[in-house]
Amino acid sequence: MAQANKIALVTGGNRGLGKDMALSLARMGTDVVLTFNSNAAEADAVVSEIRALGARAAALRFDLTDITGLDGFVTQAQATIAEAFDGAERLDFLVNNAGIGRGIPLDAVTEADFDTFANVHFKGVFFLTQKVLRMMNDGGGVVFVTAAADRYNVPNYGLYASCKGAIEVFSRYVAKEYGPRGIRSNSVAPGGVATDFNGGFIRDNPGVQQMVISQTPMGRLADAHDIGGVVALLCSDDARWLTGQRLEATGGFNL
To answer: Rounded to an integer, what distance in angstroms lies between the CA atom of residue 18 and that of residue 143?
Structure first.
């Protein structure tokens, strides 16, 4: 069901899964503010695709590792929303998608690695969500993109998965504390998708792809729309009674 005039903020919406999330939201009539870290041209191309679908869009640079810059980003986001969306002052949905990926054996994790992953996947997400909730309309929602690897254990991804697990707990607390405002909060845990995430580890490794397919009852590798469609659903009225949940979007991997 279309969500005309609703506005979503999608972090990391310039490529990969985030790009499809932004486009999937646009297809159902939601306007989108997407963020990018460094590739402005890539983000502008997605904005053009969204506008071609009939929705409004804008792009903002955002670095989740810059915790001190969060207040400035939120102020900039408010100004951009007002300018791009006819004076609108508030958001309806936040999709916490931006992230980094790298396999590191536990014995090799440095304090710098820990701080980087924790800032991007937990601390940055925590405080961005806190600040955006203050400018969110009642009846809106938050979607946290986590990882199926926090249920099944993948060697060398202990740091990454631990941060994602923390966010899933946080998501349930957001659901509990903001439910009285009609704001719902859910997490989506993708499995293996052939994107450029983690340096294209799955995309560029046929052996890894075959391993994932062999353990997936649906019999194929996911594409970005398999995940973007789930996120768009959670930002629709059809999911208005769904909150505090973890949706594992893996085609049944490792059942």
So the answer is: 12
Report the domain count for the chain. 1
Other CB atoms within 10 A of residue 191 CB: 24
Residues 6+ apart with CB under 8 A from 105: 155, 156
Which listed residue (152, 160, 173, 178) is catalytic? 160
- pLDDT reported for residue 203: 65
33 Cα distance to chain centroid: 13
The answer to the question of residue 248 being in a domain is no
- What pLDDT does residue 3 have? 38
CATH number at residue 112: 3.40.50.720
- Alpha-carbon gap, residue 163 to 241, rounded angstroms: 27
Task: Let me know: does 46 contact 13? Beta carbons within 8 Å.
Answer: yes
Whole domain around residue 59: which residue ranges? 7-242
Is 173 annotated in the active site? no
Q: Is the pTM of this model over 0.70?
A: yes
